[in-house]
Backbone:
């Protein structure tokens, strides 16, 4: 009951986004930006373009008889892609962990708001019942047939 009273005393709801943004470090913000970019069409298109340019340049250099920097089977390209994958996976996981924490905070706030609303509605219903009871008593007193004037 004490926690319920405490909930009713607070009228403003906190903004989880503002609280979370205030606590983010530079590394957290960077990982969010990297994760957002890594999960976008821009990243997919950039990766496809980069791989194609890499392969075409190396094939063109080989065709011209010059020394290419990453001959077929493109081991340097494979290594670069693997390093990118190794670095990108934990960055995305860190971002997802922060998002799940934020979701838990939102769920807690939703629960508090729902509880607060339920308690307020119960109070309103009790007041409405009291008003209805009072109105019925007044109405019955006015139209009481046993009272003959």
Residues:
């Amino acid at each position: 009951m004490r926690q319920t009273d405490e909930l009713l005393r607070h009228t403003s709801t906190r903004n989880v986004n503002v609280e979370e943004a205030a606590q983010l470090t530079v590394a957290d913000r960077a990982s969010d930006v990297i994760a957002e970019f890594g999960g976008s069409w821009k990243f997919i298109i950039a990766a496809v373009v980069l791989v194609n340019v890499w392969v075409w340049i190396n094939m063109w250099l080989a065709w011209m008889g010059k020394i290419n920097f990453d001959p077929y089977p493109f081991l340097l390209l494979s290594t670069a892609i693997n390093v990118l994958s190794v670095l990108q996976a934990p960055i995305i996981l860190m971002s997802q962990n922060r998002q799940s924490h934020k979701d838990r905070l939102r769920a807690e706030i939703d629960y508090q708001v729902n509880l607060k609303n339920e308690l307020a509605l119960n109070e309103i219903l009790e007041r409405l019942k009291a008003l209805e009871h009072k109105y019925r008593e007044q109405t019955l007193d006015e139209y009481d047939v046993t009272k003959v004037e």
